[in-house]
Amino acid sequence: MKYIIVGLGNFGSSLGMALTRQGHEVIAIDNSMQKVEAYKEVISHTICMDATDEHTVNGLPISNTDIVIVAIGEDQGENVMATALFKTLKAKRLISRSINPLHEKVLQAIGVDDIIHPEKEAAKRWAKRLSLRYFVDSFELSDHFSMVEISIPVALIGQTVDDLQLEQKFNIRLLSTLRYEYYEDSFGRTQTKPSIQGLATPGQVLKDKDILIIYGANKHINQFLRSVGIKVK
């Protein structure tokens, strides 16, 4: 897929690098040449430009871009102006970062397709991660359903997927297992990337250091976690 990311702050740059690593084409723009130069080796394309200037923004391949993300978080006015401009230029799908509740209402009035709350979403994930001993990460599909990653509890090591009887006992499904590999990026920082083991099969034996990817209703996932000794609220 093709993305345009507006703003190379902490959030925008991290998102751009992650999408590039996943094989997507990313055009990242910022009005700071220093930031553009800093990320030119780790993001597909970086361009120095003013995202609120219609003449220069109109030169971007907006009609051929799947998603435009306005990631500006430092300047609320610039965020709104850039978002409105990309809306006027008919971005196929427009996502913008919200800074506060009033700002979110303005973005809704502009008609964005989705709104990102990076700090709020990160806080919710970390709250789970810190409160559950084995919790690694989660993705909420709705208010009631999630996909969660948990480090394998000791009691499950050596068992097969079929042994767990997850669907029969808890009405949840083990989708896959993965392991995290560590590497250094071009800035010398330690990063992690998941190595997915493929779809879980009934005869698959669960091993030490496996991360379990589980899907289901939140209440059913919590029942399973309690059954293996993980305290949840």
TrEMBL record:
<dbReference type="InterPro" id="IPR003148">
    <property type="entry name" value="RCK_N"/>
</dbReference>
<dbReference type="InterPro" id="IPR050721">
    <property type="entry name" value="Trk_Ktr_HKT_K-transport"/>
</dbReference>
<keyword id="KW-0407">Ion channel</keyword>
<dbReference type="Pfam" id="PF02254">
    <property type="entry name" value="TrkA_N"/>
</dbReference>
<dbReference type="InterPro" id="IPR036721">
    <property type="entry name" value="RCK_C_sf"/>
</dbReference>
<keyword id="KW-0406">Ion transport</keyword>
<dbReference type="InterPro" id="IPR036291">
    <property type="entry name" value="NAD(P)-bd_dom_sf"/>
</dbReference>
<keyword id="KW-0813">Transport</keyword>
<feature type="domain" description="RCK N-terminal">
    <location>
        <begin position="1"/>
        <end position="116"/>
    </location>
</feature>
<dbReference type="GO" id="GO:0034220">
    <property type="term" value="P:monoatomic ion transmembrane transport"/>
</dbReference>
<protein>
    <submittedName>
        <fullName>Potassium channel family protein</fullName>
    </submittedName>
</protein>
